[in-house]
């Protein structure tokens, strides 16, 4: 019996949830620390223009992570369903295929992105001040893109195979080493944003090595097989992972939309203020991604094992946890905005005040984000993709873009900061009032409730 089976078949849902959630939460937030640390060291060691430049390059991370999530979550979902149905051979075939796919796709993207770094930087919102720094950062990330994708994809499979603690350990090692390397490369070697990018990449390599420990466990289900190119498997992996791909791709749209809106309404001051908020948002956002990553193996396994009541309990406990997390983040932002801004070495009072105002308004969105990610993950984990894609499209694309167009025209920069809370809030209200008691209940009844 595999690690995941031992846990999920013998424990209560609440105990299993927190065994997955706590290490995953710590791991995801440490993953976000890798990006936030770049901002802290660049802001203090190079300056506000360089800080804004690295923020412009954040969509590169989104591209790499979105593809690795597309394949990793899609494959991980199929893997857990197969393990829940006691089909180990199929699970191992899916694991092998997923790693091969992510290698091929990300290698092509990395080469293309490196060759087209300048036009991509301009597309992401770089101006003449920020372009050189942004290109330096992007070229390093694109060159090492396969390693970054392997780390993200493998962490998903380790978690699906009942190893959330090893997944967390890999991210702890990555985060701690990233701090040391950032200091060394920026402050000692004077490598500026190139050093920040290299620090992130080398630290990720160390995390990848930690994940490899899972393969040597006696009851590990992760085994490589000779790859088989089953069209049905590839299509299903793509379908199941598509909502996560959209969610992460939506992060790129979010960054570009905010950069364009703030550049128009507040210039470089607005871009610098948003760079601070976006680094903080990465930290909070990945916490909710972590919640989704926690319940996905559980729901997929329970679905494969036909334990529908356990699915219902998993959603219930995650709703309570998501709301508590949102309240905590809002309180941190409201009462600690000044301190949060100060750690990034902001140079002018105008940037500082705009960032503080932005944090207090922007963080309202975290009250709703948990509900949205829980239901997106729920539908995805039981292979009911339509509603999951709908949630992602509305919260990350349609409503967000509309809010970024309409609200600033009415309220200036205040409207920009409120765009994300408006989009998240509208989707969450719909889910609570309509989908929670409607779509979910009807679908589970069709599955045997």
Automatic annotation (TrEMBL):
The entry's keywords: Antibiotic resistance, Cell membrane, Membrane, Transmembrane, Transmembrane helix, Transport
Subcellular location(s) per record: Cell membrane
Membrane topology, from the record: Multi-pass membrane protein
GO biological process, one term: response to antibiotic
CDD domains (alphabetical): MATE_MepA_like
GO terms assigned for molecular function: antiporter activity; xenobiotic transmembrane transporter activity
Transmembrane segments: 20-41, 61-82, 94-117, 137-158, 165-189, 195-216, 245-267, 279-303, 323-346, 358-378, 390-410, 416-435
GO terms for cellular component: plasma membrane
UniProt xrefs under Pfam families: MatE (PF01554)
UniProt family annotation: Belongs to the multi antimicrobial extrusion (MATE) (TC 2.A.66.1) family. MepA subfamily.
Stated name of the protein: Multidrug export protein MepA
Organism: Lentibacillus cibarius
Lineage, uppermost ranks: Bacteria, Bacillati, Bacillota, Bacilli, Bacillales
């Amino acid at each position: 019996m595999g690690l995941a089976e031992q846990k999920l078949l013998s424990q209560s849902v609440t105990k299993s949830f927190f065994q997955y959630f706590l290490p995953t939460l710590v791991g995801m937030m440490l993953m976000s620390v890798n990006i936030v640390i770049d901002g802290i060291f660049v802001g203090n060691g190079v300056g506000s223009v360089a800080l804004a430049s690295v923020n412009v390059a954040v969509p590169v991370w989104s591209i790499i992570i979105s593809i690795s999530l597309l394949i990793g979550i899609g494959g991980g979902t199929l893997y857990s369903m197969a393990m829940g149905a006691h089909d180990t051979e199929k699970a191992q075939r899916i694991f092998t295929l997923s790693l091969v796919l992510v290698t091929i796709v990300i290698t092509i993207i990395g080469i293309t992105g490196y060759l087209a770094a300048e036009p991509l930087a301009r597309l992401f919102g770089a101006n003449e001040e920020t372009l050189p720094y942004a290109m330096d950062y992007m070229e390093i990330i694109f060159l090492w893109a396969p390693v970054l994708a392997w780390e993200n994809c493998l962490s998903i499979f380790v978690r699906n195979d009942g190893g959330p603690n090893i997944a967390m350990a890999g991210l702890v090692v990555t985060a701690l080493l990233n701090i040391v390397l950032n200091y060394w490369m920026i402050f000692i070697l004077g490598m500026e944003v190139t050093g920040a990018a290299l620090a992130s990449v080398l630290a990720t390599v160390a995390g990848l090595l930690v994940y490899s420990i899972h393969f040597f466990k006696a009851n590990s289900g992760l085994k490589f097989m000779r790859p088989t190119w089953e069209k049905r498997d590839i299509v299903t992996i793509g379908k199941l992972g598509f909502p996560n791909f959209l969610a992460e791709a939506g992060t790129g749209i979010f960054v570009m939309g905010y950069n364009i809106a703030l550049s128009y309404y507040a210039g470089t001051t607005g871009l610098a203020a948003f760079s601070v908020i976006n680094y903080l948002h990465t930290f909070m956002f990945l916490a909710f991604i972590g919640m989704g990553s926690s319940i996905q193996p559980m729901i997929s396994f329970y679905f494969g094992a036909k334990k529908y009541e356990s699915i219902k309990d998993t959603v219930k406990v995650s709703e309570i946890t998501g709301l508590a997390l949102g309240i905590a983040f809002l309180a941190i932002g409201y009462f600690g905005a000044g301190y949060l801004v100060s750690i990034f070495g902001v140079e002018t009072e105008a940037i500082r005040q705009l960032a503080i105002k932005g944090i207090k308004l922007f963080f309202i969105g975290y009250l709703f984000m948990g509900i949205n990610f829980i239901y997106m993950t729920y539908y995805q984990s039981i292979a009911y993709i339509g509603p999951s894609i709908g949630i992602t499209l509305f919260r990350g694309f349609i409503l967000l873009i509309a809010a970024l167009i309409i609200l600033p025209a009415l309220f200036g920069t205040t409207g920009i900061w409120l765009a994300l809370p408006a989009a998240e809030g509208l989707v969450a209200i719909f889910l609570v009032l309509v989908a929670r008691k409607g779509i979910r209940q009807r679908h589970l009844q069709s599955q045997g409730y």
